[in-house]
Amino acid sequence: MPMGRVGKVFLIVWAVLMTIIAGGLAGFEAMRFFGKTNLDSKSATSTPMLDQANGAYSVDTAEKWQSDWVRYNGEVYDYNEDIITFLIMGIDKEDEVVKEVKEGADGGQADALFLLVLNPHDESIKIIGINRNTMTDVDIYDEYGRYMTTMIAQIAVQHGFGNGMEESCEYQVKAVSNLFYQLPIHGYAAINMSAIPKINDMVGGVDVTVLEDLTKFDKKLVEGEKIHLEGATAFRYVKCRDTSVFGSSDRRLERQRQYLNAFIKAARNASSENNNAAIQIFTEIRDAMVTNITADEVSYLAPDMINYSFDPTDFMMINGETTRGEFFEEFYVDEDDLFKTIIEVFYEKVNYVD
Q: Which residues cross the membrane (predicted)?
């Protein structure tokens, strides 16, 4: 079963619906053209600034050298400008409907952060998980929405500033882009955690082996037990953690990775049995989601995703170290691993001779 349907369920779960709407309009091919143009223009940057990173540099005097090339570990790489990258956010809100909030810090934290990367060159999908405790630059705003300062804080708190809607999402996109050396990000989807039970059950539930004891949250979640996650139990498995236990966020992120891989398998089965699965899921969760992806953009993406591949090895994590901060746990990324991941996912080797 190709990953195309699964990608629509997982990343652009609303893709089929929008594509059907777009397909019923005149000038569908024109919409695809404008969709590509819009996606390219949405990112605030055109290429990562890896030349500012240790171990990677782009300074070269040769005439053939291109501005978006970098040298890394003795090889030359070119940024793949055809890659489309989306930021998927799971927001710590249990409201079934996304609501605008007053400016301040009540927009909800991004407890789950994933970059979904579509590469048309090799027709692949990759997912990069980001630890919510990653310490990085976070912009601070006051209760009137005025920028105050930038400080080092957990990346998940960035979404909390703003109005809980598009503004908060844009703040979070900026923080993640900067963490990845100004990586271009072409769109986002922020989904309230309240949608998990609905999404989970609409693919028939998800099978996992429980990675840690979570019986204090749900008696069914016994470590080592094989379980078919349904309803609120799925929500608790993905969302809950014991904050009194050191490294609980790291273990939850590993559970989220396990769950998403299992969800993809379940979504494949559901899609093979029901071609309308993506539409039905979209209908169920649209009120709990904020996204800036439009119909013309999806009309460009969806038809080409049919042949895209994905397997569990394409779900990547950035290595790092968790330490005890003054008040909360802090995760510091391994810069070497971050550089390596960016090169492997977003760049292609160039046959360049000095």
A: none
